[in-house]
Write a structure and sequence with these properties.
It is built from eleven helices and no strands. The chain is mostly helical and 306 residues long. Helix 4 (80-90) crosses helix 6, helix 7 packs antiparallel against helix 8 (197-210) and helix 9 (215-226) packs antiparallel against helix 10. The N and C termini lie far apart (78 Å).
């Protein structure tokens, strides 16, 4: 008597196993913390009717498993501090925990796509179990990597926008300080005048200053968050001028001139790269068509002569 492999049986067994795991996660005893012990006596009681209270959601049952998966993703992925810096560079307000949950979502989506492709390949073709497992694992890994690639693209796009805004902000800041405004007021005027990612970071610097932090330390925190060389050099020049008592207006004018020159060089470099890129369609599309149109009449004449 032989037993064949059944996909329906495998799916039913997987569903039964997931159900047993959910039941075990929901019924296992959890250690009560001190906050939960004191909450009944310190927190205000709910005067609403108990019949209107909704039952516990499915998230309560899957919470331990999600926490374990998030811990595993943190061990596999980048460290927590490095991830926090990357999220700040991307301008995202959520913490590492929320991003890990998003990574789990992307991984689950990739796993679902890989499972669908494996089922489709099994129904339409004759692939082995190893190839099907490779499709499922590849889908999960692709979803995990796609989340990191999306974050990297957000970082690059935001840094490009900040570099594009930087020359204008440097000019406005130098003009405001030259007009006689103190550094903090000049930063506030620039943040209120300009819209963009760099202006939002300047507004964050002003929030730190208003909360009691020194301007030099707030600017140093901005340089650490942004991690862009032109902005870091600009902030270093302002910090040195504030610490040593150098006239800030002259320093800012010199820094603004350097920023303009750096922007001009970046524009020339971008133009040079685009010029090389424009040669590709000319060489591989326009030139062959031109050569064909040039030699086709001669080839036709030679053919008629023969």
């Amino acid at each position: 008597m032989t037993f064949g492999f059944s996909w329906l049986g495998a799916a039913l067994g997987l569903a039964a196993g997931c159900g047993l795991l959910l039941v075990a996660a929901g019924t296992r005893r959890r250690r009560i913390t001190l906050v939960e012990r004191l909450a009944a006596a310190l927190l205000p009681r709910d005067a609403s009717c108990g019949l209107l209270v909704l039952p516990r959601s499915l998230a309560t049952f899957v919470e331990p498993w999600l926490a374990a998966l998030a811990a595993w993703v943190e061990r596999v992925g980048s460290p927590r501090e490095q991830l926090r810096r990357r999220l700040e560079r991307a301008g995202r307000i959520e913490g590492p925990e929320a991003y890990r949950a998003q990574q789990l979502t992307w991984t689950g989506g990739g796993l679902t796509v890989g499972l669908g492709l494996a089922l489709f390949a099994r129904l339409t073709g004759d692939l082995g179990f190893s190839h099907l497992a490779l499709l499922v694992v590849g889908g999960a890994v692709s979803g995990f990597c796609a989340s990191g690639q999306a974050l990297s693209r957000q970082i690059k796009a935001r840094e490009a926008r900040m570099l594009a805004e930087f020359p204008t902000i440097a000019e406005l800041l130098a003009l405001a300080v030259t007009a006689g405004e103190p550094p903090a007021a000049a930063l506030g005027r620039v943040a209120a005048t300009v819209n963009g990612d760099l202006a939002a970071e300047i507004g964050r610097v002003l929030g730190d200053v208003h909360s009691g932090r020194r301007l030099e330390h707030a600017l140093a925190a901005l340089a650490a968050r942004v991690e862009l060389a032109p902005i870091t050099r600009f902030i270093a020049g302002i910090t040195v001028a504030l610490e040593r008592g150098t006239p800030l207006a002259e320093v800012l004018r010199a820094q603004a001139a350097d920023v303009r020159e750096a922007a001009r060089r970046a524009l020339l470099d971008a133009g040079g790269r685009k010029e090389v890129t424009m040669l590709v369609p000319v060489i591989f599309l326009v030139l062959p068509v031109t050569v064909i149109f040039a030699i086709f009449p001669s080839l036709s004449t030679l053919t008629i002569g023969f």
